[in-house]
Amino acid sequence: MKLERKVHRVQQRPPKPKLLKVAAYARVSSGKDAMLHSLAAQVDYFQNLIRQHPGWEFCGVFADEAKTGTKDERPEYQKMLEKCRNREVDLVITKSISRFARNTVTLLETVRELKSLGIDVYFEKENLHSTSGDGELMLSILASFAQEESKSVSDNMKWRIRNDFQQGKIGSITIFGYRRNADGVLEIEESEAKIVQMIFADYCSGMGQCAIAKKINAMGISTRQGNRWTGQRVKEILVNEKYVGNMLLQKYYRQDPIGKRKMKNQGELPKYFVEQSHEAIISADLFEKVQELVKERTEQFSHSGATNRYPLSGMVQCAACGKSYQRKIYKQGAVWMCATYLRQGKSHCPTAKQISERILYEKICFALQIKEFDVEIVKSKVENILISPNQLTFLFKDNTKTTVFWENHSRSESWTPEMRQDAAERSRKCQK
User: CB burial class (10 A; 0-12, 13-18, 19+) of residue 180?
Assistant: First the structure.
């Protein structure tokens, strides 16, 4: 029996074309309103351009505000690169080479990396694709021009700023306690000025830099940048000549327009001292007294560090937070303090308690049943010493442990007659 052959035409839809995953990068190098408006316009433009293109899939617009194109520390730029490395982007669009990067080396390294991942970068102004035949050659030439332009702009700005310095004018300066008026003159900001006066008064009365910082933080007051106060930030206030109405200009300078590394001026460039440039917050007499105190305390106090180890360094730990205890020297003698408490304050390790080195050595001798402190004996027998309020726990190398109770002597008991006389003299000195 002959079978009848039947042929049916199969209707098949053509495959849907794969969309090209497209992202854009925008940047402005200034935080001024006009620049930020320009950045917003760039973002809107790229969003509309990508979304309205029929063959493209929108993968985001990455925009950096007030970031220089000569540096790599651009968060949105780094996010874009991370997305590219995860193969989530096929094409990157940017306004121009100078918006993408003014550092020739950075530009070429980035473009080459993206090219190895099969990702194209399109520069609108230059109408240039990085994956085209002559793309890298053209990018090298144009990026070199952009880098030289950046250097020229930087040199012009430096000339203007240094010319202002020679005339006693200040540039863009931010200082706690002052605001710049329309003429560029520093004017006192009353609420902040009171804090500056408090800092000088407290330091002169005997408070340390860290103690003052903790006091200000407890008051709920932040620095001009919105950060917490530290001992170092307090010291910067105490030694700043601007609070007596004078200015020392060009203390720092930028090494080059590419790295933009901030360098301390140690004679590489001239400095300019301007007297009575603005209204003072602190009197000259008080400022000089504080400078003497800063110098005295710098010579009297020292902190242990990685390059200055003591017999017990690394052995003594805080039982509460686990951080090592550090040695600190006061006029009354050496003490050991929790590193967390020392650097971040009581709120971060509220149960930590400092211990006098003399008492620590006494309790070690008691625990080891030795007549006097011997570092070799201690290191041969003790693994760690955990400090908690009024209690020392010795962890020995033979896996045993013992607990010893301790208590610091009162401050009045530890002061010698010489110490009392010296403190009285310092107090009278500040009251003059």
Answer: middle
What residue has token string 């305390």?
297
Q: Which of 132, 133, 126, 57 is nearest to 98 (CA)?
A: 126
Q: Which residue has the tokens 């932040």?
A: 222
Which residue carries 């490395």 as its tokens?
85
Angle of helix 284-300 relative to helix 190-204, nearest 10 degrees, comes to 50
What six digits make up the tokens of 30? 């200034």
What would the pLDDT profile of 20-56 be if each residue is shown by its tens digit?
A: 999 999 887 665 555 666 788 888 999 999 999 988 9
Q: Which pTM was predicted?
A: 0.40
> Which residue type is seen at 432?
K
CA-based angle 275:293:205, to the nearest 5? 105
> Which candidate, 21, 167, 166, places its Cα nearest to that of 93?
21
* Chain mean pLDDT for the chain: 77
* Ordered structural domains, the chain, with CATH: 20-150 (3.40.50.1390), 178-300 (3.90.1750.20), 316-414 (no CATH)
Neighbours of 69 (CB within 10 A): 24
Q: How far is CA 366 from CA 162, 369, 392, in A?
A: 65, 5, 11
What is the number of alpha carbons within 13 Å of residue 108 lying toward its C-beta?
Answer: 15
Concatenated DSSP letters for 165-176? Answer: HHTT---S---T
- In the chain, the largest separation of any two C-alpha atoms, in whole Å, equals 130
